[in-house]
Amino acid sequence: MKERYFSTFQLILLALFAALVVVAKIALRTPIQMPGHTGIFWMAVIIVGAGVVPKLGAASIVGLTSGLLAGFLGMGDFGALNTFLSYTAVGVGTDLALLLLQDPENLTAAALSASLGHLGKFVVKWALSTITGAPAGFIALGLARAFVGYIVFGALGGLLGALTLKALRRAGFFAYVAEKR
Questions:
Q1: pTM for this model (two decimals)
Q2: CB 102 within 8 A of CB 82
Q3: What is the pLDDT of residues 17-42, one digit of tens each?
Q4: For the residues of 74-132, what is the DSSP string, one character each?
Q5: Between the CA of residue 95 and those of 72, 162, 174, what are the distances in Å?
């Protein structure tokens, strides 16, 4: 029998990380009125998910699944399609960056991967608002400021995710998970 790329256990873990992304988006609100500021929380979760399940496509599955959940819950400022595409772009962008940078526990690699992944959300929001003619909040604030915000908050989220992965490794989480499979 052919072995699947992701085990059922890994898919369940990724689904839990996707739910955590949605919960972080709902529960962890900051009073900062800058585009992309929530990336500090949910990019950390995506980087941790990609580190816990170290396979290409893990971040994409977290992004896709969290996009489905968030769209179903009515989250987002431009509707379900925008939310779904934005979250999926975050996961795919992070996966593509990790394909080149490899190690999500490396602080630099995690920060760059999270920044590039978070820029995927920026690009989707910009493209859909341009196509539909909807007034995007970051256009009113200035495109350059929003671009920088997405990069900075994505990088901070990546750093937080890498530090979380290092703490999980020190605590023996990966050894524990390996023996429970």
A1: 0.87
A2: no
A3: 999 999 988 887 777 777 778 888 88
A4: T-SSS-HHHHHHHHHHHHHHHHHHHHHH--TTSHHHHHHHHHHHHHHHHHHHHHHHHHH
A5: 24, 15, 21
